[in-house]
């Protein structure tokens, strides 16, 4: 699991952008494909939004054959819970040696270690993070954790994160509720993350290029 920590550490710039995005609603104007799905990296990995959520085009950062994107509730869709979603796509080979389907125990042990909790922390501090739940679903591994270093921010301290592999790349998807706007309870957060995982999996069928 030596290659796991870095792809899951969101850079400080992304964390700041997420705080700004937390109070916003994504635009629903322009071509629907611009907001519902975005193909990134040389491997053409597609990041697709779950129903009612949109990609913020200005948030997309592609660098060194990796990518980070932010998503939020689409404008005009007040039926969806206010939340900040992120997608991180690692560089070529970042998923080498990782088996999400059968490596659940190893993943759980890693993310409960000091190194793993530091990787989940917005401040890079293992002591800030408590992992409450770790479980597998078809094609992905899920984590529910609390980042106490996030208190006072516009996002809830509790988040859900999914780990999956696509086209040989390590992919991280996360869901965090917006503080002061009702937030997400445990069941809502998990349901939204699983919907996000399914949307991304459908957008990347095995053996077919995304598009």
Automatic annotation (TrEMBL):
It comes from the Bacteria. Keywords: Signal. Residues 1-27 form the signal peptide. PROSITE patterns: PROKAR_LIPOPROTEIN. This is Cation transport ATPase.
